[in-house]
Design a protein that fits this description.
Blueprint lengths: L7 H20 L3 E5 L5 H14 L4 E5 L9 H8 L5 E3 L7 E3 L8 E5 L6 H11 L5 E3 L8 E2 L3 E2 L5 E2 L2 E3 L19 E2 L4 H5 L6 H14 L24
Parallel strand pairs: 1-2, 2-5, 5-6, 6-11
Antiparallel strand pairs: 3-4, 7-10, 8-9
Length: 237
């Protein structure tokens, strides 16, 4: 046994692994699953830890439910907007897409009322860039940020709003309202109690429907590989 100061990281990884098992089962192995807990260092690490394996599936579920916000949503968006233009085929190895670690097919996002701050912003980016549909609930709606805390004479602390976010199509309206999903699905307390995966079920079904009309990119076969052997020499005279 290894003593731990905090067991929450282990419990979180167990939670992600169980959600991934659900996605594999419900999709027949066709969907990868990424959960991004926040838009800070831990969320960026979690995203990159799982990215390579999960984007190798035909479709991808990106779960930002409960995302606590941060400041690296742009980096996540840069990864998810990569397009497969070709393949690098190496002898005795699996084909690697070019660009690497790019989604192979449809991407569906999951968001809810606890998707906050930079989580609001990546949900907006998903919709504005048409990365894929968003399933779940309207996000939290808090994109005005503050920097630092100011202690008053009586010992209380105040914060001052320092920055706000404006988006094309949304303007200033994300603050105090959030980003509405394309497909609104509520996971009720009864769903939780009875082990039903509302929202996830719908996201997977949507991804599979999209796969029928937008098939995943696949590496080429070898039937038309050019032959580069040395040409036959002419007869000697």
């Amino acid at each position: 046994m290894v003593p731990l100061i905090d067991e929450r990281p282990l419990r979180y990884q167990d939670w992600v692994a169980k959600r991934r098992e659900v996605v594999r089962e419900l999709s027949g192995g066709h969907c990868g699953y990424l959960h991004i807990p926040d838009m800070g260092g831990s969320g960026w690490a979690q995203f990159n830890r799982d990215l390579r394996m999960e984007v190798s599936r035909p479709a991808l579920i990106v779960d930002v439910r409960g995302n606590a916000g941060g400041h690296i949503s742009e980096l996540v968006v840069e990864k998810l907007t990569r397009k497969i233009l070709g393949w690098d085929l190496t002898r005795d190895a699996q084909p690697v897409s070019y660009a690497s670690n790019a989604p192979r097919g449809p991407v569906v996002a999951l968001a809810d009322e606890a998707t906050a701050s930079d989580g609001d912003m990546i949900t907006a980016a998903f919709k504005l860039l048409k990365l894929g549909p968003v399933v779940g609930q309207r996000t939290w709606g808090g994109v005005v940020g503050m920097t630092g805390r100011h202690r008053l004479g009586d010992g209380t602390v105040i914060t001052v709003p320092m920055n706000a976010a404006w988006f094309e199509e949304y303007g200033w309206s994300i603050e105090n309202h959030g980003v509405a999903p394309d497909l609104e699905i509520l996971r009720t307390p009864l769903d939780w109690a009875e082990g039903r995966h509302a929202q996830m079920d719908d996201a997977i079904q949507l991804a599979q429907d999209l796969l029928r009309t937008h098939p995943a990119a696949t590496p080429p076969d070898h039937h038309d590989v050019p032959v580069h052997t040395r040409p036959k020499l002419p007869p000697r005279r």
